[in-house]
Amino acid sequence: MVNELLYVIPAGKYGKNELIELLKEHSEIKFVSLVGIDLAGNDTDEKIPMELFLKDMDDFFQGSAVQTDGSSVVLTGIATLNNAKVDMPADSSVNWFVDYNYNYIDEAKGKPVGTLRIPAFLVHNGLRVDSRAILADSLSYIKSELISLFKKYPKVAGLEHINGEEIEDIIFTSGTELEFWVKTPVEKAEVAELSASQTMQEQYWQRTRGSVRTALEQTIVMLDNYGLKTEMGHKEVGGIKATIDEAGNLTHVCEQLEIDWRFADALQAADNELQARIVVKEVFRANGLEVTFKAKPIIGVAGNGEHTHVGFAAKMKSGKLVNLFAPTNMKEDFMSAVGYGSLMGLLKNYEAINPFITATNDALNRLKPGFEAPVCIVTSLGHTPEIPSRNRTILAGLVRDVNNPLATRFEVRAANPYTNTYVALSAIYLSMLDGVKAIVASGKNTKEILAELSKEAGTSGFYLETDRAYRSEHDVFEDYEEDERNRLFGKPPATVWENMENLKKFPAKTEVIKAGNILRQEILDAFVAGALIRWSTELLKRIIPENLAIVKAAKSLHDADSAVDYDLYLWDKVNSLRVELAKDTVAQKSIFTRVNDAVAAGDYDTVSALQIEMYGKVEELKIAYAKYKRNII
């Protein structure tokens, strides 16, 4: 039965009449859903009867068939309660996927009932305002700019093997690597046990077993059914060994996995990622397992990253495809001038990109030293062009294969599974365009450009900032102290507020990502406003209650009559932290209350500072209470 299902309708494969016949043939596909992506990365999912789609198909592409309430999704300040109508035109330029409900079988066909998910745009007052449109329009603008640039500068350093005037098209390629934690329902593993297993490197690429193995293998097959061309599924660094019950089934599962699939055109790649998350969740759920894509589901152990690979190539008039990052001689140069310019643009302007990469409390929790998650704006190229290497401590690394120039690309390591990939890729590619323009126009050769990228902090350059360093082949966590890292590579934001404020703090960099008027001020304001609402709401409604539970759980355990002085000393330290965090007095309000008051007053500078203080005090409390508890006999 599964082999008879229709999983994907490839872009451009069918004309209107052929499409109608195909869908009539697969009458088990009973619904259509137009998939729009709001500014937080949320996707819409409505159920429209198939007969309506077949009857009014043209209206679906014109945007007149389906509207949604824009005030109920994250289009903050754009679609308001008194102006909420948003049209949803379908997008025929990408693949369409069929989402099957395996719990609902069409009796006539004996097949699960399907919903055809058609990617769409969101149009408000005649303007496209959604994440998919931002990426599509950004790529169109960048393509036009690059083709014009190569016509003006047909000979570029490191690309001596091509003539820029012969470039017919620019192809943007992207790919994401999806990490996730999987566990049996209500399983709660001890952080200490997980941390020890990670430190001892017991989990990475271990053999999967039982229901986890079954779910992983089924997921890989299913992703291939959808045309994603899975390249690998494997265990990641996090997890503990499961146990086996009397029936021979695995219980107490708690482990981390990763699945990678083939790169695609940037817009299609972002759509593929959304479909992959759906497939992973549904397949693992069918096997009795819970999945989370949160960036840091368990504080103190490895989080979930989503390393994002970016590159672009030129399609020549001859039909040949040329990777514009790869140099003419792969053993003499790391990259071409275009590759260097792209990387330098990304690094120089990252403060304006980071808000779109790291927009939540959860995302910032992951970006801590010691967990292979980047905190510094720095790159690594490798020690020599002849022998590629990988530095896993940096923000954006060069990935290359001397024998395969088409593989040359960058890996941006800061993203997580809930990063809005559409908007993040837009900001990344727009910043890369800025660097390419500057480097190509400079006329400098690849050795001079490499020297600029490799310069020491305090050395002036023709593009990069004087007071910063941008390249390191060291372990940036082990080989630099925190103050030195901050001085060389910039101090990373500690809160969502600090990250969003960088769009104001670095206006020149923000102007770079506003090029082409796609990430225009209206969109930036809406994105920031939505992020700050989620940030402050989560602080009040989730984080403070969770921390209050930690405070309340830190109870006195010693007997007043038999307690030794050290017990009293340790408890006094614990209790003073409890009071400071959660107990109001006439003389002093607690940190929790002060956070509430600052949010109510709209004083986000104070909220941000108190959040940092609160996190520090809670960690102190955990350590102090564990020490006190260990000493109680």
Question: In summary, what is this structure?
Answer:
By secondary structure, the protein is α+β, with helices and mostly antiparallel strands.
Total strand segments:
21
Report the C-alpha radius of gyration, rounded: 26 Å
**N/C terminus separation:** 62 Å
Structural class: alpha+beta
Question: Share of helix among residues?
Answer: 40-55%
Strand fraction:
15-25%
InterPro entries: Gln_synth/guanido_kin_cat_dom, Gln_synth_cat_dom
Protein name: glutamine synthetase
Pfam families: Gln-synt_C (PF00120)
Family: Belongs to the glutamine synthetase family.
Would you give an account of this structure?
It comes from Pelosinus baikalensis. Belongs to the glutamine synthetase family. Its EC number is 6.3.1.2. The longest helix has 33 residues. The protein is built from 19 helices and 21 strands. Helix 8 packs parallel to helix 12. The termini are far apart. A hairpin with a 2-residue loop joins strand 8 and strand 9. By secondary structure, it is α+β, with helices and mostly antiparallel strands. The model has no long low-confidence stretch (mean pLDDT 92). Strands 10, 11, 14, 15, 16, 17, 18, 19, 20 and 21 form a 10-stranded mixed β-sheet that branches. Helices cover 41% and strands 17% of the residues.
Topology:
Elements: E1 8-9, H1 16-25, E2 29-35, E3 48-49, H2 50-55, H3 57-62, E4 67-69, E5 85-87, E6 96-106, E7 111-119, E8 123-124, E9 127-128, H4 131-152, E10 167-183, H5 191-199, H6 210-225, E11 230-240, E12 243-244, E13 250-251, E14 254-261, E15 264-265, H7 266-286, E16 290-292, E17 308-316, E18 321-323, H8 337-348, H9 350-357, H10 361-366, E19 379-380, E20 396-399, E21 409-412, H11 421-442, H12 446-453, H13 482-489, H14 496-505, H15 507-513, H16 521-553, H17 565-582, H18 591-601, H19 604-631
Parallel strand pairs: 2-7, 19-20
Antiparallel strand pairs: 1-6, 2-3, 4-5, 6-7, 8-9, 10-14, 10-15, 10-16, 10-17, 11-14, 12-13, 17-18, 17-21, 20-21
Helix pairs in contact: 4-11, 6-7, 8-11, 8-12, 9-11, 9-14, 9-15, 16-18, 16-19, 17-19, 18-19
